[in-house]
Amino acid sequence: MLNPDQARERAADIVTRATAAGADAADAVYAADMSLDISVRLGALEDVGRSESAELGLRVFVGKRSASVSTSDLSSDALTALVDRAIAMAREAPEDAWAGLAPANRLMHGAPPLLDLDDLAGGGDSASPESLRDVALEAEDAARAVPGVTNSEGGSASASRSIWALATSHGFAAAYAATGYGVSASVLAGEGGAMVRDYAYSSARHRKRLESAAVIGRQAGDRVVARANPGRLASGPMTVVFDPRVGSSLLGHLIGAISGGSITRKTSFLLDALGTQVFARGVTVLDDPHRPHGLRSRPFDGEGLPVSPSTIIADGMLEGWLLDSASARQLGLEPTGHAARGVGGGPGVSTSNLHMAAGKIPVATLIEDITDGVFITELIGMGVNGVTGDYSRGAAGFRIENGLLTGPVAEFTIAGNLKDMYRNLTPANDLEFRYGTNVPTLRIEGMTVASG
């Protein structure tokens, strides 16, 4: 695998080729990845997977016309053909008044921030299959040792290292490397048609920051045993509490609604919400691309703009849209440093280490006055309308009775509208940074529960 400097040079080289061949402007992405995945089941090795990839993506502009191409053939002749093909395609493409590179005066210059994403000391792309197998076995063994676990879907462990580079024809070229490690276990409880499944996992940029395989295994086992023999809920209005594992999806719907593409296409349930009270007062949503060794940290965005921590929701108020350059031009605004892109196609919009700030209430206090409610640990299906905000998803979890979690429940649907859900949301004080998007335990009043 190339190092970041070599990756940057490769991206810059094809941009130079494109402008020399007649493109008015161009940008390129180079992405390489090496990963090793080990899975075990019932104490035996089940699969060993190793992958290596390297791809180059080129976007060219001819006036207001553009085209994107990509290749995994990085030979000189192949790159020459790629450039010619891209320019020919762009000349035949329809004009787009908003197309173009990011504003030159907004590009990141100087050294990128040090985010500690590359854990060479932990093994990175050289982690051994034997060491990962042992981690996977430890996780599964710990899960299967929990009384009540009846079967296993297996344990797994992984290690990877990736390089990402971006170059533009108007003065930007940079790259960075990142490692990733993971451990997981998935087990079952019950028998026959009454079986239930649950899991636990940990992901980290640095191997030493992974949670213990034994801890992950016990979490998976404890979770599934607690869910065995679920009952049914009565239908009707109910207070719903979301476990942090599933509550983070509520922020995903928010980001989709305030992304530039949704606003320019007028397909967002928050289209007229800028500067208004979207959440209850006291709720704050933040995005921090500079979080050290964060799972989604990055030194610059997908167009070469600098990134910085931002407040998306402040005391319940929606502070701004998330914009790449094209959507910003269309709206007469400035890009926000949230552009993201892969090897193929142009930029879209994405957050980094997105999270909802912790509230002030302990979880026990959050639920102590709930006479009849439900604590959600699993969401099923994708019944969410991004245009209207209507929300309806299958769910499973635990009944809340007189302020306490009691028996497991399953096969029911929770429904509402995201506008109402956000305004009636209260966060607990138990925020932990475990995933790419993180929230504390969340309580929402007045949702509708329908038993299956």
Automatic annotation (TrEMBL):
It comes from the Bacteria. SUPFAM superfamilies: Putative modulator of DNA gyrase, PmbA/TldD. Residues 125-227 form the Metalloprotease TldD/E central domain. InterPro entries: Metalloprtase-TldD/E_C (IPR045569), Metalloprtase-TldD/E_cen_dom (IPR045570), Metalloprtase-TldD/E_N (IPR002510), PmbA (IPR047657), TldD/PmbA_N (IPR035068), TldD/PmbA_sf (IPR036059). It holds the Pfam family PmbA_TldD_2nd. Residues 35-90 form the Metalloprotease TldD/E N-terminal domain. Residues 235-450 form the Metalloprotease TldD/E C-terminal domain. Belongs to the peptidase U62 family. This is Modulator protein. It comes from Sphingomonas psychrolutea. The lineage of its organism: Bacteria, Pseudomonadati, Pseudomonadota, Alphaproteobacteria, Sphingomonadales.
